[in-house]
Design goal:
Chain lengths: ~260, ~260
């Protein structure tokens, strides 16, 4: 499968926000649905390179994920931000909760959408297929964990303030989790009760997965997103220290994966 | 207080294991006890520099802590490995458990010993007193957390597979923990039951301390110590990945503290 046809390139290439970055919208299909992802890379990097899949939070692929994707592209990665929901489906709360719920309630569908995006990224000529990782935020954090649980043949996944719950009958299978797992978590995240954390850690340990989990004090849900404001009492808020530290932890993780 | 008199230097300076490192034994006093610590620094570094206190595991100050101290000195720190137990007191199990228990059961005494070592390091002419951190292993992990709980005016502490329990009436006080806290922990550590972890996180959160905690899968107690062997079923064992990752996490933490 070829990722970008010359036609798509011609139609959708736009000037990157940063000098050297090339970015474009990419329309693709899964299960009859039309999806619109975002591809960005540094044109100054030649040949294949490590690649990064980015999975969006509950409001769908937004400027937030595009900004993170550009940050990764500036680090040299070939980056594809997936669209799980479908072209034009970019809901705000409370609709966002319903839309996310569709996929959290149907992990088979969620995995199919994740895998479709991963397959595109894998097939791109810039991708070093042995050096792929995925990161996700909130809903997308759940997504990258689901990708790991699916047994995806990638180097690693990073969840930022993601939900940790698994679906019945779809938990991680013993010895079938090639991806190393890094979970970056707000210690005060009200959306992840202690029982969920304990169950998640037990699930991955029982599966003999290689996992790490970092807790950041004073951080609630959405701690990497300035858009969330700074009122912790709302359960979702930006936290500058946790944002900075989690990005650094991700980079250290990648340094190990892609050394 | 002057740290090293010319006399002590003349008596105890020995050739460093690494070119550029100067290392020596240092005898000092606390509460009538004679203690023998270990000082190491890179002589090529001029003037004051960030400084590091190292607290030993349950068998007392050993070659293990000296090796870690040298690694830190090679990174440019002025390093002092404390002696909590007293000169010549270097017990092996099961005596080590009894000796450690003395201090874990008397946190006032433990804090006094920790503070004595910190005061020496602070007073040394090579130390930038605004840039001091402490690291500790197992028993010493408990120690550096105790140092943080005591309100010590240092930049940060790092616990490697340390015990997390506090003593009644000596828990962290609200707003009185200047040190940032990083806890590096084996997810399968049998010496830290879930209740202890939960209580510790609550204690530090309630105190409004800046803390982070990292869990490493597949790691039990003593995961940084090759001397512990590799049989996880013993409850204490070396884990190469957790060792490497925890050292890197510590370095990232220092990069933030001393930027």
């Amino acid at each position: 499968m070829k990722f970008f046809s010359p036609l798509i390139l011609a139609l959708s290439m736009i000037t990157g926000a940063q000098a050297g970055l090339v970015e474009m919208s990419v329309t693709y299909q899964q299960g009859g649905a039309t999806l619109e992802g975002f591809h960005v890379y540094d044109d100054a990097v030649k040949g294949t390179r490590p690649a990064m899949l980015v999975i969006h939070q509950w409001t769908g692929l937004s400027d937030y994920e595009k900004r993170r994707s550009r940050m990764l592209a500036e680090m040299g990665y070939n980056v594809f931000a997936a669209d799980i929901y479908g072209k034009g489906i970019r809901p705000q709360p409370p609709e966002a909760g319903k839309e996310a719920g569709k996929y959290k309630g149907d992990r088979t569908l969620y995995r199919a959408r994740l895998t479709a995006a991963l397959d595109l990224l894998k097939a791109d000529e810039r991708t070093d297929a042995k050096k792929i990782a995925a990161i996700g935020y909130c809903f997308g954090g759940t997504g990258v964990l689901e990708l790991a649980r699916s047994g995806a043949e990638i180097a690693g996944v990073v969840s930022f303030h993601g939900g940790l719950d698994s679906a019945p009958g779809m938990t991680a299978a013993v010895g079938k989790i090639p991806a190393k797992v890094l979970v970056l978590h707000g210690a005060d995240d009200p959306y992840a009760p202690t029982e969920q954390i304990t169950a998640f850690q037990k699930e991955l340990t029982d599966a003999k997965a290689d996992w790490q989990m970092v807790f950041y004090s004073g951080a609630v849900h959405s701690f990497t997103q300035k858009e969330a404001g700074t009122d912790n009492s709302k359960g979702a808020a930006y936290n500058e220290a946790a944002d900075r530290r989690s990005w650094a932890a991700m980079q250290a993780f990648f340094a190990e994966l892609f050394k």
